[in-house]
C-alpha cells in the first residue's frame, strides 16, 4: 500500500508539490518547531523557483503550520500541548460525523481502498517503524475524510488531524507503544465498509477519546 507521505497527486502543480512536501515535514517534525523556513535552500532542493514555495507557505500559514513575521521571515509554528483540548473538542464533534458519512457512501472504489487499508493495518506489529505507523495513521484519517465526500468537512478535519499529529510526534518517544492505537482504525474501517453509520460514529468517538487520553497520560 502506498504511504500517504510519499503518494503524490497526479499532475500536481509546483505549488502543490511544495505544499505537500513542506506540510508533511512540518507534521512529522522533520522541520523542528520554531525553525526558520529558508526559501532559497528549499528552492534549490525542490528544483523550483521561489514563487511556488511562497504560495505553499501562504497555505501552510492558514493551516497553522508556519507563521510569517515582517522583516524576519517564516518559521515553523511551535507545538503547544495546551492546544490538545481545543483540537480534541472539535474532533470529538467532526470525526464521528465524517465516519458516519463515509459509511453511507456506497462508492465501490472507495470501499475497496478502505478494505485494502484495513487489511494492511491488521498486519502491523510492534516491529513496525514508528514513523511508518504515524504515516498509516495519517493515511487512514485522510481516507475517511475523503470518503465522507464533503469538501469543507474534509479540509477542516485534515487541518485538525495535522495539528494533532504534531502533538503525537512530539511525545511519541515517551509512549511504550503506538501500534494498538493505529490498529484501532481497522475495526472503524470495517464498520465503514459494512455500511454501518452508527457503529462507525461510535468507534470514531472512542478513537478520538483514546488519543486524547493517551497523550494526557504522559503529561
UniProtKB/TrEMBL annotation:
Keywords: DNA-binding, Transcription, Transcription regulation. PANTHER family: TRANSCRIPTIONAL REGULATOR, GNTR FAMILY (PTHR43537), UXU OPERON TRANSCRIPTIONAL REGULATOR (PTHR43537:SF5). GO terms for molecular function: DNA binding; DNA-binding transcription factor activity. Pfam families: FCD (PF07729), GntR (PF00392). SUPFAM superfamilies: GntR ligand-binding domain-like, Winged helix' DNA-binding domain. SMART domains: FCD, HTH_GNTR. PROSITE patterns: HTH_GNTR (PS50949). Transmembrane segments: none annotated. Residues 12-79 form the HTH gntR-type domain. This is Predicted biotin regulatory protein BioR (GntR family). The keyword Transferase does not apply. The keyword Transcription applies. InterPro entries: GntR_C, TF_FadR/GntR_C, Tscrpt_reg_HTH_GntR, WH-like_DNA-bd_sf, WH_DNA-bd_sf.
Amino acid at each position: 500500500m502506498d504511504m500517504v507521505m510519499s503518494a503524490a497527486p497526479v499532475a500536481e502543480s509546483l505549488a502543490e508539490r511544495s505544499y505537500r512536501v513542506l506540510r508533511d515535514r512540518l507534521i512529522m517534525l522533520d522541520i523542528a518547531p520554531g525553525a526558520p523556513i529558508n526559501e532559497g535552500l528549499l528552492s534549490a532542493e525542490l528544483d523550483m523557483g521561489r514563487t511556488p514555495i511562497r504560495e505553499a507557505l501562504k497555505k501552510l500559514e492558514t493551516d497553522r503550520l508556519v507563521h510569517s513575521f515582517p522583516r524576519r521571515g517564516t518559521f515553523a509554528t511551535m507545538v503547544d500541548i495546551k492546544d490538545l483540548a481545543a483540537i480534541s473538542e472539535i474532533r470529538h464533534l467532526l470525526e464521528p460525523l465524517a465516519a458516519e458519512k463515509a459509511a453511507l457512501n456506497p462508492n465501490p472504489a472507495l470501499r475497496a481502498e478502505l478494505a485494502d487499508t484495513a487489511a494492511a493495518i491488521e498486519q502491523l506489529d510492534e516491529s513496525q517503524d514508528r514513523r511508518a505507523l504515524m504515516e498509516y495513521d495519517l493515511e487512514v484519517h485522510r481516507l475517511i475524510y475523503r470518503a465522507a465526500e464533503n469538501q469543507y468537512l474534509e479540509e477542516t478535519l485534515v487541518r485538525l488531524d495535522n495539528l494533532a499529529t504534531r502533538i503525537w510526534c512530539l511525545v511519541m518517544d515517551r509512549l511504550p507503544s503506538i501500534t494498538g492505537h493505529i490498529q484501532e482504525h481497522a475495526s472503524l474501517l470495517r464498520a465503514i465498509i459494512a455500511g454501518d453509520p452508527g457503529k462507525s460514529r461510535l468507534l470514531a468517538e472512542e478513537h478520538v477519546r483514546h488519543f486524547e487520553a493517551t497523550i494526557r497520560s504522559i503529561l
